[in-house]
Amino acid sequence: MTQTAADQRLERTSGRAIFGEDAAGYHAGRIGYPESLYDSIFARVGAAPRVLEIGAGTGLATEAILARGPASLTVVEPAAELITFIEDRLKDPRLEFVTGAFPDVELDGPFDLAVCAAAFHWLDPDAALARIKTLLRPGGVWAMWWNSYRNYGIGDPLSDAIAPLLEGIPLPPSEGADAHYSLDTALHLKTLADAGLHAIEYEVYRRERQLRTDEVIALYLSYSFVRLLPAPRQSALLGRIRDLVDKTFGGVAPNIVLTASYSATKTS
Fold this sequence. Notes:
CATH superfamily: Vaccinia Virus protein VP39
Largest sheet: 7 strands, mixed
CATH topology: Rossmann fold
Number of domains: 1
Strand order of the largest sheet: 3-2-1-4-5-7-6
Structural class: alpha/beta
Number of strands: 7
Radius of gyration: 18 Å
Order of helices and strands: HHEHEHEEHEHHEHHHE
CATH architecture: 3-Layer(aba) Sandwich
Strand content: 15-25%
CATH class: Alpha Beta
Helix content: 25-40%
């Protein structure tokens, strides 16, 4: 991997506000998660579960969870702007919003299911999982998952071509040295086991799509490490990406999306 030094990392706390500054732009750059992912998770819980969602972003997972018939869905999100965005998009009496950073917010459990989509890397895993265990009922399920849109070195030519343009830019905690944090299966299985969770399951889903130049720009504008760049540097980077997609790929580039999902049960 050539894109940036592995020791240049954004602080975990930076994820609390940066996405709310342009919720619509973030939403436009991202896609939802495979239906089969929700099938697997909801097969582990009973009908009409009481659900907790941590770090909802613009509500991509929130919307899909509501479609699965929960009795209630409590959404914890540190950015008030994102909560407003979700409220405007999804008007549902089963939704309850808590503004604040997990695990420090006050919550009334127990929950049958607790989930975190594309946000767990912004949390301290030990503190977060310890709190999650206190909020789950015995037999309750914890699930976390991510979409990885930049999968260099596995036949994803768009990611391979853009990687050198990112040299020297500090990465978020979701970016590993050689692959997305979510794809470090050994790390996550150990973290869940060390937290005292059981019946751990994982799955990786693969989707392939074609992105137009403007869709590639929207994707990169949704990244924390691009959003945090000074305006001149951000503009220059996006201009180089636009030129690359237009000239190298003729304005339509292939993109591989890998979705890694982990779930586990609290036994007592």
